[in-house]
Q: What sequence folds into this?
């Protein structure tokens, strides 16, 4: 290479950073690349655990921080956050002058960053494009990010085809698998004793991991949906609950308040986390009977542990789901039925043969080789690829 290529990774949440970790590490170790990191969103929020510290604890340098979250989380506040984000990203990206920006997913924080990078004429590489989540406005953000990006790293064949259907040139689309699934195989997980000590909580005879986020395209129904879930969980016997708090979507603060009240009712059998951290989260998946809620991790990472997932409602509607995923509507009756199925001998036996459809070998290395070697001259000018 003629010069060191500056790669700027932008991360706005605990979950997204955990997925990007392996790629960030490889970029940082590569002599032909210079790593830059911009932290934003909930990483910088006390309410969400100041998770930028996890990045620093891993030995990485954060080059800049873009404050953008408001103290409240209404739709109006979210729009103000995006406005502040675009202004902040404009300044920081201009200062860093990266050769390529790397982003993952569909969050509004990332959407704001990509808008700024587009206007500043910085090429963008996007992970997890082409997926669908019809119950959240993240769906629109994700496809918009795809159209503003120049290199695409998809997690499945369906996603690969969908990105091309959106008009992206096939030579710029790479089906590499889900980077979070690769991380599972490369991480030394905690033993049960070390895990329990790390969270200061004892697991029970039965254990479930709960993650529920607002369904942002439905008006206020998420409170009723989550209340129904908590009502069902409160009736379970001999079951300990690990609950990860909601992200910074509209309505997330209401869900987190409900979680605090629910845990306070039975602190010996319930515990909540602003952020478990990647190691503890993956370690937890070894010891639980299943994941319940509406998070993508139940669809993408959980199958690697051969455990079931109860996916509630429409937030993940349209996303590829292995047969370990039990779909149910957010009613008490359906949630109860889904839990009964999760613990049925027939269902548990079927999981022994489960293969994760999101896994492909060497995901992070495949991405690294593209961002190292793909020509960037002229990449900003995109030709619409028609599939008609």
A:
């Amino acid at each position: 290479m003629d010069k060191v290529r500056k790669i700027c990774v932008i991360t706005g949440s605990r979950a997204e950073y955990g997925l990007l970790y392996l790629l960030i590490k490889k970029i940082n170790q590569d002599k032909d690349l210079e790593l830059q990191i911009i932290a934003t969103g909930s990483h910088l929020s006390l309410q969400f655990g100041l998770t930028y510290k996890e990045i620093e604890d891993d030995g990485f340098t954060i080059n800049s921080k873009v404050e953008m979250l408001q103290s409240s989380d209404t739709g109006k506040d979210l729009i103000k956050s995006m406005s502040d984000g675009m202004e902040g990203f404009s300044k920081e990206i201009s200062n860093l002058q990266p050769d390529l920006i790397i982003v993952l997913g569909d969050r509004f924080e990332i959407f704001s960053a990509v808008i700024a990078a587009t206007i500043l004429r910085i090429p963008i590489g996007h992970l997890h494009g082409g997926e669908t989540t019809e119950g959240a406005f993240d769906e629109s953000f994700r496809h918009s990010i795809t159209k503003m990006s120049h290199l695409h790293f998809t997690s499945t064949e369906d996603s690969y085809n969908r990105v091309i259907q959106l008009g992206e040139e096939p030579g710029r689309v790479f089906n590499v698998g889900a980077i979070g699934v690769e991380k599972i195989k490369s991480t030394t997980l905690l033993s049960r004793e070390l895990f329990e000590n790390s969270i200061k909580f004892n697991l029970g005879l039965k254990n479930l991991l709960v993650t529920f986020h607002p369904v942002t395209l439905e008006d206020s129904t998420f409170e009723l949906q989550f209340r129904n879930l908590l009502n069902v969980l409160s009736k379970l016997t001999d079951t300990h609950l690990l609950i990860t708090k909601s992200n910074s979507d509209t309505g997330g603060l209401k869900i987190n308040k409900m979680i605090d009240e629910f845990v306070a009712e039975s602190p010996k059998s319930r515990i909540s986390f602003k952020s478990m951290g990647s190691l503890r989260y993956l370690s937890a998946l070894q010891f639980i009977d299943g994941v319940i809620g509406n998070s993508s991790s139940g669809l993408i990472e959980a199958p690697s542990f051969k455990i079931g997932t109860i996916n509630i409602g429409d937030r993940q509607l349209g996303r590829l789901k292995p047969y370990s995923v039990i779909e149910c509507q957010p009613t008490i009756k359906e949630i109860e039925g889904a839990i009964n199925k999760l613990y049925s001998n027939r269902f548990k036996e079927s999981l022994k043969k489960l293969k994760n459809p999101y896994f492909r070998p060497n995901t992070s290395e495949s991405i690294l080789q593209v961002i190292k070697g793909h020509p960037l001259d002229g990449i900003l000018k995109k030709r619409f690829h028609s599939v008609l």
Summary: The mean pLDDT is 92. The chain has two domains: 5-177+360-373, 192-353. The CA atoms of residues 9 and 24 lie 7 Å apart. The domain at 192-353 is CATH 3.40.50.2000 (Rossmann fold).
